[in-house]
Amino acid sequence: MTAATVFFALLFYAATLLGVGGLAWRIRDYARTPAPLKIPTTPAPTTTGGVVLRMLREVLLFESLFKANLWIWLFGWMFHVALALVLVRHLRYFTEPVWFWVAWLQPFGLYGGLAMAAGLAALWARRFLVERIRYISTPSDHLMLALLLGIAASGLWMKFLAHTDIINLKAFALGLILFDWQPLPAHPLLYVHLLLVALLIAIFPYSKLLHAPGIFFSPGRNQADNPRERRHIAPWAAEMDKAKV
Amino acid sequence: MATQVTAPPLKPYPVIPILEVGAMANTKTFPANAPMQEALGFPGELVEDWHDKAIGKLGELLGKYRSLKVYLDACVHCGACTDKCHYFLGTGDPKNMPVARQDLLRKVYRRHFTWSGKLFPKLVGAEDLTKAVLDDWYSYFNQCSECRRCSVFCPYGIDTAEITMAAREVMDSIGLGPKYTNEIIGKVHKVGNNLGLPGPALRDTVSSIEEDLKEETGLDIRLPVDEKGAEVLLVTPSADFFAEPHVYSLMGYAKVFHAAGISWTLSTHASEAGNFGLFIGNYGQMQKIATRVREGILDLGAKRLVVGECGHAWRVAYNFWNTLIGPFDFLDPNYPVPQHICELTYDLIQSGAIAFDKSANDKYVVTFHDSCNVARASRMGGMPGGQFEIPRAIVRAVANKFVEMNPETIREKTFCCGGGGGLLSDDLMDLRVKGALPRMEALQAVVESDGVNFMATICAICKAQFSKVLPYYKFNMSMVGGVHQLVGNAIRLGSK
């Protein structure tokens, strides 16, 4: 058992704890915070089924962003879909036997990796080239793109230029899940890749990556437009009413 | 503090301005004085420990409003909203970009309520609430009309209006309220309406309108006040009683009720549809203002509740009345509660209960300005988007010539008139004129292409704002008017 194996094993447990634990805490917090008034951005669906469809269009197609700006939509959507493909491709390291659809999507995952890097680069370029977006960008906006681009670049590098031992890497990954540690292949680029991924997982719930769970809790998008038909009242508002009577 | 009012030149097509940092930093609406503040239960002036009080209030609001919490967390600075605000397009001040406006509050939220902002403030753009930041809050959160245009385009639906309301609520709680809004709310509590028109004056005004109607039509078209047992209680913005062109819409409502034979009444107690509690994001104030409506209808025993032409009022009525002052189980279940005057008129047109001589409006080439709160924060009729179709259907039914403006500037993408959200104040005239730019450009285009000479709208604030602002852009101020002004012109009232 090398020092690197122990380090990365502990790192991933810690990152998962921070990431998943933090995310659960944020989601619980969102869910428990009342939405006292009906504020869907209209025109809005009048039924729950309609709201589900609206949310699906937002999450899968980025409908609102499409209305806003075609360039941001193009690069942003490309990045996110590519990221999803890449994540699916990586499932092969965590499943044995590999699920058939994961196997089937492997080649697309590869294109995904390239598209992900391209999308990120274009999104980053906007932060320099467009005056308005330069104005609103904070250091963390740049660093987040750097982090993701670093992950993509180190991954692609290992795929195309400096292969690592993916058989043993898979053994390491499965070992983490089963709490039966296996040695991590010694490979500097792999270390970089894993370090950045662990960092990404760890900071997820403490950064703007909260947009992912956030959209599902956005009252502007997740409320049905039915205020005349159904009385909507938050617990703290009901208390106010009681106090008055 | 007389600022110069300048209208930007109208361009043939929309252009996103070059940033002019700090251009509007010194544009500050007058603060409310101590009696105005105290009448609403707010401190009279900036309190000693304003910093701690403000942070405390922000924490309280974060626990009460999911919208605020999620919206402060979710922004990724993608930039989709940066060119969507009329105040940014008109002024070029980057802090009038929706995301930058939100960030004024977000940076303080990050500093005090997030780990990343506590540990690495510089990295995530977190900042302490200094006096300079508070000054920026007062300037720029009073340069947002809460029109929600940015929220249409945000991939997470982040609504700057929610952030602005929270910021105003925090500022009110430390003694820093806007004079225009808070003075008016005080008048509603005391007298019953935004104009401060007491009951007897209201009766006088209404009877002189009846005389005008008699002169115009030869008929006894009534505007009943406080009549018990009437079927409909009409609650309308008080501007309808006094201001032009508002009053022509009021005459239009009266003619509709008369022609359809519906008994109706106004109420001196509930003589205001507007609800400026919305603008300062204060649930309690909003509820207190709305309560007059519940009291009014219970007292008069009307069976239906109808709301006149007013944008934010319709938002509050449609979305919030059921929550704030409901349930309305004592009203006629055959009609929506509340019902918009346009819904009522539209239904009467559909059923053939009223008819029109469209040629009465032939002097007009009409376009329709969607009011922000109606378009993006409410509905009419049974279908999503009815708030766009129903007023247009009425205009088409009463006028022969109707033209749409640029599709990027109407319906859900409509531009605010520039005077909404509590900014319809003379001390903000420069901002109002500049904020009207996108609408004026769209109007200019149809004036040139189709000879449009009437812009119909269904909002008291839009009407007042455009009447003031149109001349700055070399348009005639009487180009703006209500949908029911057109209805009133064309409706057949039987024998003359």
Describe the structure.
The complex is a heterodimer of chains A (245) and B (496). Chain A contains 13 helices and no strands. Chain A is globular, with a radius of gyration of 22 Å. Helix content of chain A is 72%, strand content 0%. In chain A, helix 6 packs antiparallel against helix 8 (139-160) and helix 8 packs antiparallel against helix 10 (188-203). Chain A is mostly helical. Chain A has helices at 3-32, 48-61, 63-68, 70-90, 100-104, 106-129, 131-136, 139-160, 166-178, 188-203, 211-216, 219-222, 235-244. Chain B is mostly helical. Chain B has two domains: 43-176, Orthogonal Bundle (Fumarate Reductase Iron-sulfur Protein, Chain B, domain 2); 201-490, no CATH class. Chain B is built from 23 helices and seven strands. Chain B has helices at residues 34-39, 50-64, 66-74, 86-91, 98-113, 115-119, 121-124, 131-140, 149-153, 160-173, 179-190, 199-217, 239-242, 246-260, 283-300, 311-325, 341-351, 372-377, 386-398, 429-435, 437-450, 460-469, 483-490; strands at 232-235, 264-265, 304-307, 339-340, 366-368, 454-457, 480-482. Chain B has a four-stranded parallel β-sheet. In chain B, strand 3 (304-307), helix 16 and strand 4 form a beta-alpha-beta unit. In chain B, helix 14 crosses helix 23, helix 15 packs across helix 16 (311-325) and helix 19 (386-398) packs parallel to helix 23. The longest helix of chain B has 19 residues, at 199-217. Chain B starts with 33 loop residues before the first helix and ends in a 6-residue tail after the last helix.
- Structural class of chain B comes to mainly alpha
Q: How many whole angstroms does the radius of gyration of chain A measure?
A: 22 Å
> Strand order within the widest sheet of chain B?
2-1-3-4
Overall 3D shape of chain B: globular
CATH architecture call of chain A: Up-down Bundle
Helical element count of chain B? Answer: 23
- Annotation, overall tally of beta strands of chain A: 0
Number of strands of chain B: 7
What percent of the residues of chain B sit in helical stretches (DSSP H or I)? 40-55%
Described by strand count, sense and barrel closure, the largest sheet of chain B is: 4 strands, parallel
Distance between the termini of chain A: 70 Å
Kindly name the structural category of chain A. Answer: mainly alpha
Give the mean pLDDT of chain A. Answer: 96
The sequence of SSEs of chain A as H and E is HHHHHHHHHHHHH
SSE order of chain B: HHHHHHHHHHHHEHHEHEHEHEHHHHEHEH
